[in-house]
Amino acid sequence: MNQDLNRKIVTATKWSSGSEIVAKLIVPITNMILARLLSPEAFGVVATMTMVVSFADMFADAGFQKYLVQHDFKTKTDKYQSATVAFWTNLLISLLLWGLIVLFNNHIANLVGSPGLGLVFIVAGISLPLTSFSSLQMALFRRDFEYKTLFYVRMIGIIIPFIIVIPLALLGFSYWSLIIGTISGHLANAVILTLKSKWKPQFFYRFDLLKTMFAFSLWPLLEAISIWLTSWVGTFIIGSILNSYYVGLYKTSISTVNSIMAIITASTTSVLFSALSRYQNDDQAFKKTLFTFQRFVSIFVFPMSVGIFVYRDLITLILLGKQWKEASLLIGLWGLTSSVSIIFANFSSEAYRAKGKPKLSFLAQILHLVVLIPVLIISSDDFVVLSYVRSLIRFQFIVVHLIIVHYFLKISFSYLLRNIFPIILSSIIMGCLAFLLQKVSNNMIWDFFSILLCIIFYFVLLLVFPKTRQDIVNLISLLKLNFHGNIVKNFLNK
User: Fold this and answer.
1) Looking at residue 346, what DSSP letter applies?
2) pLDDT grade, residue 473 (50/70/90)?
3) Counting CB atoms within 10 angstroms of each CB, which of 21, 132, 193, 292 has the fewest?
4) Residue 131: exposed, middle, or buried by beta-carbon count in 10 A (0-12, 13-18, 19+)?
């Protein structure tokens, strides 16, 4: 049973990683084009629109996705009935929220620092009912580790900007091109997932099922609200104190780094949650899976973080263009702190949820917000100061998670650190080499050559340590697609 589940986990990781790798090869090209066609102000408008719609969408989902992934259903009928109740509930809530956006569109636009753009929020609200048709199917696919289907769905989403967003941007539609592209993506997802899903909505409803799901989903919903606040409070504060230009710089800088890190994290986090959920009653297997994923992801995200910081000017120039030069500092600092945040904070949150303890994640978010909000208000009148403060304040969030992990999951920080120490040390040494190589020349070709040298040097360093050497052997086996039982067992249990 465990071996079969392990095989599903690794296969799911393969397809999820494949979609992210393809996405990260194509999406940056799209962003590079759009960043040169659209101004930071346009991206700022879209950021405030996304903030409002994502908040409403969070309530529409009501945490039912996590219920469908985690709950142990006795039969397939029970699972599909719960999905149906969740679907009709989501659809009703999303329509009501869209109606509120329509009624109060101008008030909302003024509140988030985009006066006169109420129509933008009305049109963007179309996404709310559309996601009702796709979010639950995605949860069911993730539960069953059917990431192959999600791979094809992701590919459609990648193609849409090339056939819709870029042509509209070239025609001068500014932020409307991004909004129309987003809606088109949600529509495509809804259609494809509904057609591919074994589950289809039916005219069925039971309030006792709703009560059961809501009882489970209340804390995940509160947690989602706190995560939304952590993610978007900066956008709201900057929009209120500064303007759309700096909102665009702020959100695009963070999104650029997150998209780079998501090459690894987006392909593993959802798989990790599904895997840990299956092992939630087996502490030994639970911890082994968590530690393995942390080490596996660390091999990539730590050197990526160091590289983003050292080569921040090059990354900004290539991905965004000269008009985004002011964003370089935040891109570098956010990149440098991202790996630590992913491994010690984000993965900890996945562990809480998989254990059925979203209250712990909610507690961590609230303790972070208590510090984050006043610090952002004080520092937001100067973008340089904001860049330093917003990045460094993440360490407070990490410390909170480490304390919670120690007391509630009985995992010490010393063990977590030992688990990935060779990777951290190798990344630091590689970073020192990168700084020295940058002193040789400012030529862009030399920068690319030095990056290649750093990558080779980093992996050679990893081979010095027995544990990471074995991880690399397993990774090479995975890349060769040799997914037989022994490798799966070694990969998950070492």
Assistant:
1) I
2) confident
3) 21
4) buried
